[in-house]
Write a structure and sequence with these properties.
Blueprint lengths: L1 H13 L13 E3 L1 H9 L6 E2 L19 H12 L4 H13 L1 E4 L4 E3 L15 E2 L9 H4 L10 E3 L5 E3 L3 E2 L5 H14 L3 E3 L7 H14 L8 E6 L6 H15 L4 E6 L15 H13 L3 E7 L3 H8 L9 E5 L7 H10 L2 E5 L5 H6 L11 H10 L3 H12 L2 E3 L5 H8 L8 H8 L22 H5 L9
Parallel strand pairs: 8-9, 9-10, 10-11, 11-12, 12-13, 13-14, 14-15
Antiparallel strand pairs: 1-5, 2-3, 3-4, 6-7
Helix pairs in contact: 1-4, 6-7, 6-15, 7-8, 8-9, 13-14
């Protein structure tokens, strides 16, 4: 009976006229017990009424609340009902319940959804039961003064301020991880390529044991490197990262670069193969959300979206006041894909390592004048600009003072005129992605990698 119900649920949503389906929760064939355990840790929120399939669930208007007790009673009534259609209807409604917070823009599931697992001891495949939700409005919306998190299309929430760990290594990385958490960061961004997962894992275990922070309070991102793109290598690559980090799951796992393992005009293995393997890892409960990094809209649209059961939740790219990346940001917003910004301060140190001489945004006269007027530092002004531009930001530092300074980007707002002034600064992409280009590969130059005119030189 359960199989027929699930089949009906899937067919109903597959046949719907929703133009761009977005998963609203994480029950992608995750075992019921794992689902209960994960969601039991989520904060209780008031629940919004299930929306019509063709309408958006507006985060600015949570809608009428649903009493949890009445929802429980409805479940028990339907559980004993012999009418399979009624039970399936309740299951569909339960699958698309979403919680909304107008102040923080959060998307999560109500506690009553735990009960869905009671009618089946089998794993639940809900990735096909999809709905176009207001993550399209939420993922790219300018952060309000009080907003600290963003709701992803996977149904999870992510802190808007994250700690970037690129170039942090050794004991310095261990100490910096502790300092970042103590400063207030709850989002840690690392990668296999950074060669610091082991140090971060060591620091996290010490923080867990001391009671400074709990695992469920953190959002940990890592990234899949090129050598693990083949379908049979994705899970081993993930497990290696989890082992080094000493974690049971990742909150977000990204394909680091749209690169090819083998030479030739086509990407080999194709991104579709890598993505399908990532989806299986989500189904196992090893990852909560999946996404990409450094992918152009064209590469996502042509390869991943047509076959994805689970849509990309995040695209992490270069973005700062000298490179607004407007075209990509607009497209990702339309697709319900959140954009996370690395290099939000356009770090000149990183560019110096590439042999490039680029302007230092933190020394920009306009930025400094605005900072002085507002009683903020240039760093805080630039990070605040990034948040109001519609992205999360991932500043990197190992200096405890700078970490605390970076946290100071939260809790206030750039006046509109100052935001506009910074937005009108000259534009130039700093990070060209030369490591992903090769004369014998699918992307031989800037235009082929980014699918746009070369803007790596000052405009």
């Amino acid at each position: 009976m359960q199989q027929r119900i699930l089949k009906e649920m899937t067919a109903s949503y597959t046949a719907s006229a929703v133009p761009v389906p977005v998963p609203v929760h994480r029950l992608h064939q995750v075992h019921v017990n794992a689902t209960k355990r994960a969601w039991r840790k989520r904060p209780a929120q008031s629940c919004a009424a299930a929306p019509d399939q063709k309408e958006l669930l507006r985060f600015s208007d949570p809608g009428p609340s649903v009493d949890e007790q009445s929802g429980e009673q409805q479940f028990h009534d339907l559980q004993s009902d012999s009418n399979q259609q009624s039970l399936a209807q309740w299951g569909r409604r339960a699958a698309i319940f979403a919680c909304a917070s107008s102040s923080a823009g959060l998307l999560c599931l109500p506690k009553i959804q735990h009960r869905v697992g009671r009618f089946s001891a089998m794993s639940i495949k809900a990735s096909a039961a999809t709905l176009e939700v207001a993550t399209k409005q939420n993922v790219g919306a300018a952060a309000s003064k009080s907003q600290t998190h963003v709701g992803l299309n996977s149904g999870h929430i992510m802190p808007l301020l994250g700690w970037g760990t690129s170039q942090a290594t050794g004991d310095e990385c261990v100490q910096a991880t502790k300092a970042a958490i103590e400063a207030g960061f709850r989002h840690i961004d690392t990668a296999e390529m950074y060669k610091n997962e082991q140090e971060i894992g060591k620091a996290l275990q010490e923080l867990f044991k001391s009671g400074t922070v709990k695992r469920q309070d953190l959002f940990v991102t890592s990234k899949l490197w090129t050598e693990h793109h083949p379908g049979d290598q994705v899970r081993p690559g993930l497990m290696d990262s989890l082992s080094r980090l000493q974690l049971e799951y990742l909150d977000l796992y990204l394909i680091h670069w749209p690169t090819s393992v083998k030479p030739g005009p086509k990407v080999d293995p194709p991104f579709e193969e890598t993505w399908a393997a990532l989806e299986k890892c989500v189904e196992e409960g090893l990852i909560r959300s999946i996404g990409v990094s450094n992918f152009s809209p064209e590469k996502i649209e042509s390869s991943i979206l047509p076959m994805a059961k689970i849509r990309p939740a995040v695209n992490q790219v270069e973005m700062h006041a000298h490179w607004r990346n407007d075209r990509l940001l607009k497209w990702c917003n339309q697709q319900g894909i959140h954009v996370s910004a690395y290099g939000p301060l356009s770090s000149p140190q990183t560019m110096e390592g590439m042999g490039k001489d680029v302007p230092n945004l933190m020394e920009d006269k306009t930025v400094n004048e605005i900072a002085e007027k507002l009683g903020k530092t240039p760093t805080q002004v630039l990070l605040r600009w990034g948040l109001q531009h519609g992205s999360s930001v991932l500043p990197k530092s190992v200096n405890p003072h700078h970490l605390k300074e970076n946290i100071g980007a939260a809790g206030w707002q750039l006046p509109e005129e100052d935001y506009d002034t910074i937005s009108n600064l000259p534009q130039q992409r700093y990070f060209t992605g030369s490591l992903a280009m090769h004369k014998d590969g699918p992307w031989r130059n800037y235009e082929e990698l980014w699918d746009e005119k070369d803007v790596s030189q000052p405009l």
